[in-house]
Amino acid sequence: MADREPREARLTEGTGATSRLLKELLAQGRPVAEIAVRLGISVPDAHARISGAPPGRAAPDESGLPPSLPGEGPPATVAGTPPARPGGLAPATRQPRPPAPPRRGLSRRALLALTAAGVAGAATGGWFLATRETRESETVVRPPRPVPVPPTLTPVPPPLAALRPATNVFRELALAPGEPVSGGHGIFFMETRGEGAGSVRGWQLTEPGNGEAPVYRASTGGRFLAAGSALHDRFSGRSWEWSEDQLRLVGFSDEAVLFEQVDPERKPFPVKVARYVLADENLEERAVFELKGAQLPSTPPFFEPGGRRAFLALEQPQQYPALFLLDGSTGHATTILAPQRQRALQRILFHAPTPASDGDSFLFPFSYWPTRPPLTLGYGIFATFVARVGWTGDHRGVTRVRVDRAFVSPDGSLVAGERVLAIQGAPPDTFEETSTVLVMDGESGRIRFRIRSARLNYGDELGGLRWLADSSGLVVQSRIDGKVGYSLVSADGSSIEQLPDPPSASSAWFQHRDVRGAAPSPDDPSLFAFGRTDVYDRASDRWLGVQLTESDPSHVGPWGGSGSEEAVLALPHLPHRVYPLLASLDETHIEQNVPMEGGGA
């Protein structure tokens, strides 16, 4: 045992054979991965042996090495690899050992190296070579892993993408006082004050089309006018057009415009869902809303002063409507009025709102219709409620009045409505032949006084006010000394004053006094419009009018809603529903002493 040389001093023949094999493989231009497999070492150790660096340490310069294979990762340290000597040789003190028998399979070290290279190659969709001691090379091809491709996103156009500026859409007309209006269609504004009183400015579509007559509308302040699929700003002179199969104009004021995005693919049943776009006075988008329900023609949309909020009434299932607040600053839609369903009542009817004189709220009437009304009961209304609502949507009170339509004074202190009264002591379904106007308290609904044989539901679908702008009086249709006309009743019911008849009508349509109904101005208690063609100034006893030659006026209101500097007239006359007169007029008179709760009224 003493004369035996230490094991570390013997030179192994396997190391020399490995060096010779390494030189042969390099001379043949074999890839590094194949060299590592043939030598039974890891790929990093093969790099180290080729460059002469110790195992596990990167070569100082790899410019002379074969190019790396696709997917080959950075050199990794493999556990269990013995340290190599410079040049790949063992120390000279080691004794030679017999050569190791040839191995037909892959060693554990080669299997680890091959697995590492394969995993790295497969991760990037590449390929690698696997060889055995038989020098027969096999190419293993891995199919590339599919790279996920993001879906192609179709660009969504802005909500008002169909809106475009236009020129020469409307033709402007200027008429002197008394000059007749011709053309058969258009919208016209007559000045009511100053040196230009009686002069008319009008706008007509340059291409009205060959189909139905165009419908002209004006905003509440008269700034915007619309016809067909076009809108015009009278103040700036700008015009816009849009495609009717993409947008529909719902309503507008001087500071806001509300459109509906038309979607022909949306099904209207069971409940219609529509997208509404609120725009500012420059027709730039403020907010977009999606709401359920069909629009109500009896209640067009209206807007808060300034145009930041819009109010839209929509019919809900089972003919029960709801009033929505569309907030353009937050983009939220809120239901602010949705009357509850009542037993034995068929439906609810919304009426047009009245802006309150405080500037901070509006008055909104709505009526219940009974399921089985008596056949002779007036207009079939069970009860009407007047809700006072702030422009922010807050509720400030509600008043019940037993009338048909409720006309509220601008200050909200009084409510007037028309009703056919039951005859006292007669069978329950027996009613008077004349109509009575009830004037009630705006908060309690108690009757203040009656105007017997008088009417408020007159005119050719004439909406708007019946009260004077300062709430000092009420305009009614009356019969005094056998003459049917219009009278002004004081707010306390102490006096009644007949208004003069308008000048001779230029058309047979206006010969009927009911058609030429009186509409008070919204801001001047001395101005009254008659039949949409004539204006009477009670302070100066002066008449102004527009002469028509070809067509009768449409149902556009004579006042813009926010002022009376101009009276509005639109052509042509359009078909409408004709409501029969349910009661006649006898001599009109005022009754002051009435029961507190109406006495069956």
Keywords:
about 600 residues, mainly beta, 5-stranded antiparallel sheet, 4 helices, about 10% helix, about 30% strand, disordered N terminus, disordered C terminus
Structure report:
With 601 residues, the protein is mainly beta. Helix content is 8%, strand content 32%. The chain is built from 4 helices and 37 strands. It has a 5-stranded antiparallel β-sheet, with no helix packed on it. The longest helix is centred in the N-terminal third of the chain and has 16 residues, at 108-123. The chain is elongated and about 140 Å long. Mean pLDDT is 78; it is low at 1-14, 53-96, 110-137 and 597-601.
Number of alpha- plus pi-helical segments: 4
Question: Strand content of the residues, in percent?
Answer: 25-35%
User: Could you estimate the helical fraction of the residues in percent?
Assistant: under 10%
Quaternary status:
single chain
Distance between the termini: 136 Å
Q: Widest sheet: strand order?
A: 3-10-9-8-7
Question: Helix/strand-derived class?
Answer: mainly beta
Give the rounded overall mean pLDDT: 78
Instruction: Give the overall form.
Output: elongated
